[in-house]
């Protein structure tokens, strides 16, 4: 392990905020005057680092309901360290409530974050988020702005409990919904479950997208050690928030920026971490987008390759049994990273100013059933597998760890749904022509077709089959799937059907072939037949005559490129604003 060299300290005159406040002209006067107007003193902002608290708190985001209070703790930490904290509200993106999907707005948050920081007299930022799309949205913006930044994870909710069972958000919701539809539990049971399953603020307490993303960000060095595992309601979360405020002031004075922390090696560490956690497939899209903002390649194949060599060792739902509160008490992410230390680049720089190896040197695992050794994995199935074939020329992804093993090599007739509305109208029809061998196909649910690539990929099992005992089928879509969900679901098919990808060409009754071991996904049609169907295919007309939807239709990328806007990609840094 290489110890980081001592860093040069930034002088007061070099602070970015002083371009606004230290000017000896009318503009400088106006900037200072407006700060004084808010009751501040001149020496509160003259010669002090100005820290933005970029806060995604919202009354419509229960995952972030506590971030208003945590912002106060951050502010106290910034003040203790000699800085000035200013809170800048940002798009909340509360999962579940935002329709059609928060993914539609991830890039809007990324753009907002970048421009919030650029347009104000800011020297560094504390990024407050955690619900699924807020983490990548905030990081994408911070990457492109490249001022000192530290990420403050919102933290998972506490364990849920129902009738003697520990239950996790999303995962058990899906399981009990199927039981309700099959007639195995009553409506009264379902209502009782509803009020007991989620018992505190915070993000999903399974290894869903939220904890997958915050864990990867910690593995990349953008959080304080252990920050991603602390439950939202734990008193330690408030202390961590204050520590973030203190540390960002130090980062500004050391000029420690994301571009120095987020190296190719740091991204490899993130992929290894996601694999060992049995994390969400959404991580593939978000990490791909983040890597492309830095000029790195990271996508389906990186996750597939790592999943072939690194097993799942965190026994967390949906791939395992435990929940995030158990993971925290078992030692949290620091303990997991210690387990993986021979597979990680421990010399990577982190926000602490120390290396990843130094950060985890004192970690301990307190429960080897929750965080297992590498020679006792949770499953012999890989966390991720990247598929290609004539149905997915640019790739698709599956989680073998949560799929049924007997379906991982399967041939069956397709039952095609043209949209989510079409599927919802027909899926529970008792006369639906479907058997357990049928391959359910949903199209029209990609980045443009959804719009926004909603989490529709865990298609419901038809009710007639649920009543007969079927609990899993092969399901294919150009959609995403909640990280809390499970099943033999092929996701992120690229290109999507809306732009003429092969999913647009298949018909009910066509035979579909899945072979996970061979990483193959095909429809059993000749190239000539596919070409004939393609020639007859007509693209759908644009749906958005104006507004943000029109921007998405014209500029969003496909799943294999991270679904970023084409005009946001790339490593070019925009010039600083002129101070008029």
Short description:
35% of the residues lie in helices and 12% in strands.
List keywords for this structure.
580 residues, alpha/beta, Glucose Oxidase, domain 1, six-stranded mixed sheet, 21 helices, 12% strand
What does this structure look like?
This protein is α/β, with parallel strands linked by helices and 580 residues long. The protein has two domains: 310 residues, no CATH class; 152 residues, Glucose Oxidase, domain 1 (3-Layer(bba) Sandwich), CATH 3.50.30.80. It contains 21 helices and 14 strands. The chain has a six-stranded mixed sheet with strand order 12-11-10-9-13-14. A four-stranded parallel sheet has the order 2-1-3-4, with helices on both faces. A hairpin with a 4-residue loop joins strand 13 and strand 14. Helix 9 packs antiparallel against helix 12. The chain is globular and about 75 Å long. The two termini are 48 Å apart.
Largest sheet: 6 strands, mixed
Overall geometry: globular
Distance between the termini: 48 Å
Number of domains: 2
Instruction: Please report the total strand number as a whole number.
Output: 14
Please give the radius of gyration in angstroms.
Answer: 24 Å
**Multimerization state:** single chain
Q: pLDDT below 50 for ≥5 consecutive residues: which ranges?
A: none
- Give helix % range: 25-40%
Note the total helix count.
21
Task: Give the strand order of the largest sheet, numbering strands 1, 2, ... along the chain.
Answer: 12-11-10-9-13-14
Structural class, from helix and strand content?
A: alpha/beta
| Strand-residue proportion | 5-15%
Mean pLDDT: 97
